[in-house]
Structures are given as structure tokens and as C-alpha cells.
């Protein structure tokens, strides 16, 4: 369930004018920006952008980028985008802007969606950046990580529920062999892991993971749990967790982002912004269950200023105003 | 009384032909198979009017029959099998033609996977010569028909050095923007060139960078690379390697198709090669490139494709192919 609170009645023109007023003069009236944008759904935000463009002949996003800064600016500018566009932009930023691609964003983009949704994101990406997502991921990564990420992003997965038990059994063995056969925690190889994880249907993979646990006595993610500096293994673990249960995985991303020394704002913003209109409520429940404190409290204590106010608004809080 | 020219006509109508370099069948040195399809009209006119005795004489003389110990002339099993295949060519072509292009491509890939390494070229052909949306359509159809994705089947069935390339090619969803970045074109052309030069030490299709470029870049970009490659080296046209085939399919498909058609129409071609005739003509007949394929064929071989087909192919199958080629003229 969504955590976003948006009124049914609204006037895009009035909102646009209020935002313009918030930009005027010395400094910016962030509270108004948060109050308006933090309470509008995707369709409403789109109308506001159009209205702002019509009335002021200016791109609202450009204006926001100019007027705001830091984590707050990034969160708001992502929030205001149409959801599909946002996914494409997040992927682009993860690939291009970091000196080293943030593989987690790529995995989230690819694995938390249906095959058709991923296709739509890829089309939007091509429209925005005049290159394919695949070619950008490929040219900014190398080795096994490249093979894995490109494969995961390219696949048009079968989405039926059929399972071939024999194949699941044999592939559970193949996975076990590659993961555990290296000695000293290292992978023996990556080819078959990449093949299986990046081509099989979700239903088939879940069956395979079950067999893995039966055969090896431990879950596949535990088998891969080793050196956090081994990025590739970490990526495989993340992918498997995401495939098993995307919501649980994202909730974990949030948990980790708050726990890490200094908060990982990008990850925190990303999950909250992308799920506020979908299922952030469920994630809040799991968060409470796992940590014993509410996500709202965690965000309130670990973040500050306008950024904090904005996140809390998206989380469904009204207390700040 | 049967005339000798009728004997010859009947033999020819069965697609039987005496040629110097036709496939040699052990034990039957005089037997040669060749050609395509069956000449229905000729069969009907000859066999329809012959008496029992004419047919008996034919059986005694024809290389398609052999004298049995129990004193009757029996059909050679091999030739009956051959005839069955040739009779079926029209049916296969018609069924393929009527099919939705997505189903067509999905089934072509499925069959190629069953046929094994000799048919990898078909996978490359379908993955590379179709537009991004057409390939996507084939992938959708494959889901419906076979309850698997193309990616998983190709990855599972291909275990050799071709796997990375082929999986990458069938998974591609390329951008088709016309504008290319010259710097990147030049640097990637160098990478390909270096990998090809190094082919005796390392198979180019196992080179990470080669696979990246060829499976993710858009076609206009690849065409620019191909052109640039020609400028800094000889072109890839004569290279029979998998990489060369892939680049040809992506950058100069009409050249690739013209070559494949020519190979299929040569005497002594094996069935895999012959099948390409139906496949290429049926799958390209409604595309803009059929015209270019015909032009390229004429340029390369000095004779029009229609004329060649007229010479080599028989009966209704021939008529069907010629009709398909002539569309849009």
C-alpha cells in the first residue's frame, strides 16, 4: 500500500503559481515545495509540470535543480518525475555518474519489475539518452560483473508458473558446484551462475533455490555470504534476494542505508521515492518487525532539515506542518 | 510406347539429376540427387498417359530403382525419402509464408537449436537481420509457443564458445538512432580489428569487448564501424568466421542473404544449406530488402535471382518462390 497522502481535489495551475512564489525572492520556501509536491501523485505532478511550463515558459525540474541543493534537491527532482522516466534516470545516474557503476541500482531496475515494465523502462531510456541501457551498462562495467549486469538487464523473462523439476534439481547442483567448488570461499566459475540467474523464469528459479537448500543444507544466499569486498558475489546475493522477494529486498536496502556509518542518502531516497506510491507501507511494517523501531523514527533521527521533512512527508507523516 | 525424352523428363521432374559433383551415396555411384521441388505438371502428363509396360520399362532403366533378388524392381528407400522431402518443400514454404512473422522467427530459432551447431547461422541471421521490435516480437511468440524464453533455451543448449555471442545476440534490444559518435566508432573498430588479427591465439567471439560491441551497439553505429574497418583494413566480406557472418548480418544483410541464396542454389548443397532458399525468400519477401537482395545477387553472380531459380527449381514450389520474389516489383 502507498504511504503518499494526496488530495483528490487539486488545481495544477494554483500549485504551479504557489511553487513559483516559493522560488521568488531571497532563498527558497522549501516548506511550500514539500507541502505541495510531497502530497501529489504521479498524475498530479505531471499536470503541475505542464501547467508550470505553460504559465511560466520554464521547465519546473530545471528550476528546482537551480533553487535546491544536496540530498533534498536530488530527492525532489527524482520524485517529481513520472515513475517510468524516473527508473530510466536513476539507472543512467547509477551507470554514468559514479566513477564505478552502482550495481545495486541496475539490479533493482531489472529485477523488481515484470518483463513488460522493464521493457518500458528500456524504451524510455533509449528515448532520453539516445543509447540503449544495455550498451551503457556494458561499456561502463567489465568482467563477470559486466556479463551479469548486461544479461540481467537484457533478458525478456518468461513469466509462466511452469516448473521443470529435473532442470531445477540439476541447476541447483550446478550452482552448488560453482559456488562452493572454488575453495576458500571463492567462486569456481561464474558462467553457469550468470546463465541460470539471468535467463530462467522466476518460478523456475524459486524452485531451483529450494532444491539448493535441500541438497546443500544451506540457502544459496548464505553460501554466497562471504567477503563484502567481493563485489561480484555481493551482486549475486543481492540479485537472488531480489528475485526471491523484491519488497523484502528493498526494505533491506533501506535498513542498510540507515545502519551504515553516515546514512546512505541516495539509497534511502531512492527506495522511499520509488515506493511511496506503491508499497512503502508494507516495507514500513517489515522494518518495524525487523528492527523494533518505526522507519519514520529512524529517518527522523538519522536525517536533517528539508531532506528529512520531505522524506517524512512521503512516508505519510503530517506532523511536520 | 514411352519415349526416351519422356524418361528424362520424368527423372528430372522427380528432381533427380545427373551431375558430376552431386552428393555421393555409397553403393550407388550413379545416383545423384539435386534440384528443388517436383515438377508436378510433367509428372502428371507423363505418368498419366503411360501404360503399365511404360512404367515397367522406366523402373528397369531408372537409377531410382534397384533390382531385387526376388525379381522385381523396387524403389530405393533413399530416393523415396528424398522425394518426400522435395514434395514437402512447397507445403513448408506456404505454411511458413502464412505464419505471423513472430511465430516464424520463434520456430526458426527453435528448430535451429534442435539442429545443432550447423544451424547456428540461422540463429545469428534471425537475431541480427530483424529490427529491434521484430526480434522482440519473436521473443514474445517464443514465450507463448514453448513456455521458455529464447535466452534460456539458447544459453542452455549451446555450451561451446558460441554461447556468449549467441545469447547476447538474441537478447539484444538495440537503439536505432542514426547519429553516431565518431570517436567511439574509431576506437571500437580498432578493438575489433585487433581481435580479428589475434584470431589464431584467441577466438574473437570469446573476447569480452568484441561481444560487448557486437551485442549491445545499435546498427547505425555498427555500420559505421564496419565502414571504418574497411578503411583501415580489408573488409570482412570474404571471411567465413562467425564474427564476420554476424557483422555482415548486422551491417550489410543484403550481401549476407545474397551469399546464402547462392550457396543454397549450388549443385551438391546439403539440406541445411538448401533450406535457406525457402527461409530467406519467405522471410524477406515483404521486407524492403528483397529488392536490394535481388540487386546484390545480380551484381555478385551476373544472373538474376529469378533466372537462377527458374533453372534450378521445379514445379509449383518454383512458381511460389518466383511469385514471392516478384512482389513489389
Attribute tags:
heterodimer; A: 321 residues; mainly alpha; B: 329 residues; two-stranded antiparallel sheet; 18 helices; elongated
Structural write-up:
The complex is a heterodimer of chains A (321) and B (329). Chain A is mainly α and 321 residues long. Chain A has helices spanning 12-23, 30-37, 42-56, 60-67, 70-79, 83-97, 103-111, 115-129, 133-139, 143-154, 165-180, 191-199, 202-216, 220-223, 231-244, 246-259, 265-275, 280-291, 295-302, 305-314. The two termini of chain A are 23 Å apart. With 329 residues, chain B is mainly α. In chain B, strand 1 (65-67) and strand 2 (73-75) form a beta hairpin. The A-B interface holds A 119, 122, 126, 130-132, 134-135, 138-139, 142-143, 146-147, 150-151, 154-160, 162, 195, 198-201 and B 136, 139-140, 143, 147-152, 155-156, 163-164, 167-168, 171-175, 177, 179, 208, 212, 215-218.
Amino acid at each position: 500500500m502507498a504511504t503518499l497522502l494526496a488530495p483528490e481535489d487539486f488545481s495544477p495551475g494554483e500549485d504551479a503559481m504557489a511553487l513559483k512564489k516559493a522560488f521568488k525572492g531571497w532563498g527558497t520556501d522549501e516548506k511550500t515545495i514539500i507541502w505541495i509536491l510531497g502530497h501529489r501523485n504521479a498524475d498530479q505532478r505531471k499536470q503541475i509540470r505542464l501547467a508550470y511550463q505553460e504559465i511560466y515558459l520554464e521547465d519546473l525540474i530545471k528550476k528546482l535543480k537551480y533553487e535546491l541543493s544536496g540530498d533534498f534537491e536530488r530527492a525532489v527532482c527524482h520524485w517529481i518525475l513520472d515513475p517510468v522516466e524516473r527508473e530510466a534516470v536513476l539507472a543512467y545516474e547509477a551507470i554514468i555518474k559514479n566513477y564505478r557503476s552502482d550495481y545495486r541500482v541496475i539490479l533493482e531496475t531489472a529485477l523488481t519489475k515484470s518483463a513488460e515494465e522493464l521493457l518500458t523502462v528500456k524504451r524510455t531510456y533509449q528515448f532520453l539518452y539516445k543509447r540503449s541501457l544495455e550498451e551503457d551498462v556494458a561499456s561502463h562495467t567489465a568482467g563477470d560483473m559486466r556479463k551479469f549486469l548486461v544479461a540481467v538487464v537484457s533478458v525478456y523473462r518468461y513469466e509462466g508458473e511452469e516448473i521443470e523439476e529435473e532442470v531445477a534439481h540439476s541447476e541447483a547442483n550446478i550452482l552448488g558446484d560453482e559456488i562452493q567448488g572454488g575453495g576458500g570461499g571463492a567462486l569456481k566459475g561464474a558462467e553457469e551462475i550468470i546463465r541460470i540467474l539471468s535467463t530462467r523464469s522466476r518460478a523456475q528459479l524459486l524452485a531451483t533455490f529450494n532444491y539448493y537448500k535441500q541438497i546443500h543444507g544451506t540457502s544459496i544466499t548464505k553460501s554466497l555470504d562471504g567477503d563484502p569486498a567481493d563485489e561480484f558475489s555481493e551482486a549475486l546475493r543481492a540479485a537472488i534476494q531480489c528475485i526471491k522477494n523484491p519488497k523484502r529486498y528493498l526494505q533491506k536496502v533501506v535498513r542498510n542505508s540507515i545502519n551504515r556509518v553516515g546514512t546512505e542518502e541516495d539509497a534511502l531516497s531512492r527506495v522511499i521515492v520509488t515506493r511511496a506510491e506503491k508499497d512503502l507501507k508494507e516495507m514500513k511494517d517489515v522494518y518495524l518487525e525487523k528492527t523494533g523501531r518505526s522507519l519514520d523514527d529512524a529517518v527522523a533521527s538519522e536525517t536533517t532539515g528539508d531532506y528529512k521533512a520531505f522524506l517524512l512527508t512521503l512516508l505519510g507523516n503530517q506532523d511536520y506542518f | 510406347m514411352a519415349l526416351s525424352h519422356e524418361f528424362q523428363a520424368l527423372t528430372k521432374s522427380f528432381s533427380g539429376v545427373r551431375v558430376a559433383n552431386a552428393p555421393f551415396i555409397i553403393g550407388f555411384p550413379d545416383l545423384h540427387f539435386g534440384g528443388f521441388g517436383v515438377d508436378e505438371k510433367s509428372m502428371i502428363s507423363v505418368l498419366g498417359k503411360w501404360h503399365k509396360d511404360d512404367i515397367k520399362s522406366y523402373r528397369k532403366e531408372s537409377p531410382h530403382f534397384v533390382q531385387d533378388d526376388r525379381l522385381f524392381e523396387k524403389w530405393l528407400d533413399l530416393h523415396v525419402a528424398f522425394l518426400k522431402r522435395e514434395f514437402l518443400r512447397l507445403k513448408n514454404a506456404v505454411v511458413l509464408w502464412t505464419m505471423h512473422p513472430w511465430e516464424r522467427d520463434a520456430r526458426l530459432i527453435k528448430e535451429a537449436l534442435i539442429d545443432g551447431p550447423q544451424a547456428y547461422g540461422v540463429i545469428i541471421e534471425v537475431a541480427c537481420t530483424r529490427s529491434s521490435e521484430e526480434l522482440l516480437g519473436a521473443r514474445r511468440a517464443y514465450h507463448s509457443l514453448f513456455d521458455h524464453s529464447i535466452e534460456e533455451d539458447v544459453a542452455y543448449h549451446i555450451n561451446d564458445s558460441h554461447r556468449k555471442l549467441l545469447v547476447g545476440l538474441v537478447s539484444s534490444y538495440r537503439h536505432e538512432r542514426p547519429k553516431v559518435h565518431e570517436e567511439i566508432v574509431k576506437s571500437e573498430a580498432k578493438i575489433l580489428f585487433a581481435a580479428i588479427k589475434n584470431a589464431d591465439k584467441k577466438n574473437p567471439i570469446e573476447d569480452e569487448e568484441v561481444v560487448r560491441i557486437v551485442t549491445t551497439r545499435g546498427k547505425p553505429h555498427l555500420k559505421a564501424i564496419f565502414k571504418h574497418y574497411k578503411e583501415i583494413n580489408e573488409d570482412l566480406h570474404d571471411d567465413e568466421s562467425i564474427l564476420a557472418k554476424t557483422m555482415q548480418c548486422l551491417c550489410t544483410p543484403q550481401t549476407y542473404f545474397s551469399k546464402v541464396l547462392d550457396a543454397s542454389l549450388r549443385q551438391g548443397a546439403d539440406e541445411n544449406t538448401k533450406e535457406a532458399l525457402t527461409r530467406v525468400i519467405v522471410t524477406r519477401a515483404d521486407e524492403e530488402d528483397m529488392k536490394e537482395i535481388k540487386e546484390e545477387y545480380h551484381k555478385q553472380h551476373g544472373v538474376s535471382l529469378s533466372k537462377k531459380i527458374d533453372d534450378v527449381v521445379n514445379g509449383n514450389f518454383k512458381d511460389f518462390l518466383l511469385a514471392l520474389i516478384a512482389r513489389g516489383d
